[in-house]
Amino acid sequence: MATKAPEEAQELRQDALTGEEISGTTIPPSTPSKRQNHGAARNACSFPTPVPPFDPTAKPSLVSELLSPSKKLSPKHKSQPSKSPAPPATTPTTFSGRSGLGAYTAAPESFPSSRVISYNDDFVVINDLYPKSTIHLLLLPRDPKKQLLSPFDALQDPVFLASIQAEVRKLRTLVAKELQRRFGHLSKLERNREEAREKMLSATEELDDSKLPQGRDWSKDVISGIHTHPSMAHLHIHVLSRDRHSECMRHRKHYNSFATEFLVDVEEFPLSEGEVRRRRRAGFLDDDLVCWRCGRGFGNKFAKLKYHLEAEFEEWRSE
């Protein structure tokens, strides 16, 4: 079995994603049967919406063009002598491993709506392939001058930063509304408000919202930010519900990547050169585990925290 180079192994130790998750972002040029198998592998975790395998045979797309092997040289060209070695017959372009997010920014129209939620000339919004919460979105900037820079460098540009912050605010509102849609009927605060509304309507024809009890503020249940040590090459911003309830939440570093200062809110950028989060970077992933809701500590016992989070999730959504 081939062993990883020391620098590659060190990089993986600093990543919030596992090596399997990073390699799982590969979109390989393959036959339909291989694509079907690949699609099944990509559904190893439960997603908010079922994700069908990416099918390049459904219709021609930019992604299928990018990912298909180059045309072979014609016999005429093959017969010409050459002093240098001939180039390989196939030179497929793939967005694999750490570059996997590039496929979405290159051709978002080629993906189903269950994966790509929206896109325009500047941004693509997707459902995270390995969500760490009930709702987990990624905002992907499409600016080719910025998307491969580190977040610390890319967000030094005040105009670019302002555009990112504005989009994140929109997505936070979207996630909050989706939480209300999914869990509003379970929330005590929401039910109390709705019951008071019905009583008011039955007693009078006029409805005065100012006299109703306050409903749940779902915006407080949304977090967002950028990892200090991103696992993926392309710039991406996380916007997710804070429950951390997902089958894809499987490791200590998964949890701490969203429960410590490893996640930096975009409103805090740009970070100064002396900012500790620039220096410590991945060290946050080794912090002791602490429940995001009740503050109970679990040391390095992720399995116990995971079990605890199940009960917290039920209580959280019924608040």
Defining traits:
36% helix, 6-stranded antiparallel β-sheet, single chain, 10% strand, 319 residues, 12 helices, alpha+beta
Q: What is the tally of helical segments?
A: 12
Coarse shape? globular
Give start-end ranges of low-pLDDT stretches. 28-44, 46-84
Mean pLDDT: 79
| Largest sheet strand order | 1-2-3-5-4-6
What amount of the residues lies in strands? 5-15%
N→C terminal distance: 51 Å
SS-based structural class?
alpha+beta
The count of DSSP E runs of length 2 or more, i.e. the number of strands, is 8
What can be said about the biggest beta sheet?
6 strands, antiparallel
Helical fraction equals: 25-40%
C-alpha Rg (nearest Å): 23 Å
Order of helices and strands: HHHHHHEEEHHHEEHEHEEH
Structure, explained:
With 319 residues, this protein is an alpha+beta fold. It contains twelve helices and eight strands. A hairpin with a 6-residue loop joins strand 7 and strand 8. The longest helix is centred in the middle third of the chain and has 26 residues.
Topology summary:
Layout: H1 6-14, H2 19-23, H3 32-41, H4 62-67, H5 75-79, H6 102-106, E1 116-119, E2 123-127, E3 136-141, H7 151-154, H8 158-183, H9 188-203, E4 222-227, E5 237-241, H10 252-259, E6 263-264, H11 276-280, E7 289-290, E8 297-299, H12 302-317
Antiparallel strand pairs: 1-2, 2-3, 3-5, 4-5, 4-6, 7-8
Compose a concise summary of this entry.
This protein has 319 residues and is of the alpha+beta class. The protein has twelve helices and eight strands. It has helices at 6-14, 19-23, 32-41, 62-67, 75-79, 102-106, 151-154, 158-183, 188-203, 252-259, 276-280, 302-317; strands at 116-119, 123-127, 136-141, 222-227, 237-241, 263-264, 289-290, 297-299.
